[in-house]
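Notes, p. 3: input format for complexes.
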Amino acid sequence: MLVLGIESSCDETGLAIIEIDDCGASVLRVEVLSSQVELHERYGGVVPELASREHLRNLPILFEQLLELTGYTLGDIDAIGVTCGPGLKGCLLVGVTFALGLSGASSVPVLPVNHIEGHILSAQMHYSELQAPYLALVVSGGHTEIILVEEVGRYRCICRTQDDAAGEAFDKSANLMGLGYPGGVRLANLADSFQGTSEFSLPRVAREIESFSFSGLKTAVSLLIKKHAQDCVNDQELISEIAWTIQDAIVDAIVYKTSKALSSHNIPLVVCGGVSANEQLRNRLKALHEDVYFPPLKHCVDNGAMIAYAAACHLQLGHEFGKLDIHSRWPVESLESFYGLS
Ligand code: KG4
Ligand code: ZN
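Output follows (342 residues plus zinc ion):
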């Protein structure tokens, strides 16, 4: 059985085909991805209207590529999983409409998939030994949450951001430092080049509340940068020291909440989403917990394979999919009723 996955919730267009073999194992056959980072860079953030148009342009091209790479035809595909949320409405609409077009031409069912569930399950796609229950730390440009995975389709939110996501905190800080967009990686690289001990400190945010919160940190970062703006001219060491201080504060906030969650749930930890590429975060989480899983980097960021895989998991479990619609917000804990599991 072949399942096509379509991802278009933000600024990456991703397509992939997963095969479920006779033993029920899922094998990734092919995947293609088109990133819009360059397009949005000059605007300092994702422009939803432009992103939707880019998906519209890319989807037929990528689908053709997918078929060319494999020799499959549309008639070989048995089901289409498509991201229906959370994400930018226009972008989601383009992906769902494209899926419906393929379905109209081939009578293949279109299965709605939750983007965050895709991120969470991407670890299971790579580590066959990983079994629920486990905790999933989802840290990306749009989301920061810790989810208790009881089984596929049954999720409990332990902790979620009440304002910015961790990736946004990286990107906004990088922007304040004049590092461009998306500057998370650039800030991280600068931070990792710092060898000494930082003389600066930033507040340890949101320790006393249940949720993540990064908006207060943004204000503190802005003050720190303004205070040292003059000194930073031609002082690369100082710039790296400030970057290190910012990275340390963001990573510390993530690790603190994760550590709290692990203290009441001593189970495996999955870390996914773009920020999980961060070396300092990886090292601190590895030191914190023995049983930690990071999907390969190409599947930490948005991609079509995780969407195909999530659809394949629900198909294999015989779950009834809920109504096809788009949702700009779609908490994973609501999936239990979406799949009729409650
Ligand atoms: O999951 P993702 O590719 O896209 C979504 O937001 O859904 O995550 C992108 C985010 C951006 O905010 C980017 O700056 C951040 O992940 N990011 C990093 C690193 N690599 C990517 N943040 C910190 N350190 C990194 N090495
Ligand atoms: Zn994502």
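Residues 2 and 77 are 5 Å apart (CA to CA).
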